[in-house]
Amino acid sequence: MKTEIAGITRANEGIQGITWNILGQTYVPKNRTDNCFSWHATFPSGTFVPPHVHPDQDEYLYILEGRLDFMLDGAEEIATPGDTVRLPMGKPHGIFNKSQQPAKTLFWVSPTRRLYDLFWAIHNMKQQNPEDVVKLAAEYNIHFLPPPPA
User: Which residue has the higher pLDDT, 19 or 11?
Assistant: First the structure.
């Protein structure tokens, strides 16, 4: 069991100096235990996380800068600085930066499950093409949804 260690993860630093490139966004892990995993994310304009489901994790975001658009269980929502977004396990959600500015947010999931390992696996892919990311994510119990009909 991985337990928390007292300390401070400094601004702009990840635990153990880690920074990941995930689907064009920058993720910086801030803590990881069996019960909770958090990371800072920077979403450049036009980047997104396609709609997906975490069957066994609750996910949260606290918006620090910018604006993010969400698909939350079929509804469209917008979050701005100071907003907390709740994404309960089993509920489909997608995250989109449709603005002209970068967005920054603190994410966390509970429990951690294998998401930390999935981020390493995506970061280490030679090319993060959608088909391969979707297939890989399913191996870690994160399930992307098919695109809506045209």
Answer: 19
Specify the range with the lowest mean pLDDT, choosing from 101-105, 130-134, 138-142: 130-134
Per-chain mean pLDDT for the chain:
94
Q: Which amino acid is at 116?
A: Y
Burial (Cβ within 10 Å: 0-12, 13-18, ≥19) of residue 99: middle
Question: How far is it, in rounded angstroms, from Cα 29 to Cα 107?
Answer: 9
pTM: 0.92
Q: Name 110's bridge partners.
A: 58
For the chain, what is the total number of helices (H) and then of strands (E)? Answer: 2, 11
CATH architecture of 15-113: Sandwich (2.60)
Burial of 13 (0-12, 13-18, 19+ CB in 10 A): middle
